[in-house]
Amino acid sequence: MRENGFTLIELMVAAGVIALLAATGTLVLGRTFRSNTSSDNLRVLDTQINNLSSLMSSLIRESRVVDLDGVDRQECLDLLQTNGSSLTIEALDGYLTTYELNGADLASNSTILNVSGSTIINNLSFSWTCEDGAPDTVSILIDAESISEDGGNNVAKTYEFSNYLRNTLN
């Protein structure tokens, strides 16, 4: 005659199955949260770099290039294109602004332009294309990284922006 209830073996098997399902669920859920954190970090990085580019581009478009790593306009016309890491522009009011990398921060001669301490700029380079009778073009290449608070979901990305300078026709 069998009494109501479960045997010890049946209880241990049931507990093992429940533990296995819980462990699998925890792994899947953990990966989902990490994935969302990486997506969030990428979205923040995209927003910060796009804001930074917008700020720089609005000034660059209305200016003229004075030099790029010491190469002036006449030398650029001879070369047709030059690359460098320090761009100096002159605004319509005559004010000079230099953009360059200062450690892990994008800086002008008046301020640091990074919008958040969690964003690190690993590389900044400019490409200046100039030709008689055509507007100059300045392309900005930024390699940036967003450092997450937990240190595990850092996101890195390369951005490139091109700007036609409106005040450079000869």
Would you give an account of this structure?
This protein is α+β, with helices and mostly antiparallel strands and 170 residues long. The protein has two helices and eight strands, in the order H-E-H-E-E-E-E-E-E-E. The protein has helices at 8-61, 73-79, and strands at residues 64-68, 81-84, 87-90, 96-102, 105-107, 119-131, 134-146, 155-164. Strands 1-3-4-5 form a four-stranded antiparallel beta sheet, with no helix packed on it. A four-stranded antiparallel beta sheet has the order 2-6-7-8. The longest helix is centred in the first third of the chain and has 54 residues, at 8-61. It is rod-shaped and about 100 Å long. It starts with 7 loop residues before the first helix and ends in a 6-residue tail after the last strand. The mean pLDDT is 84.
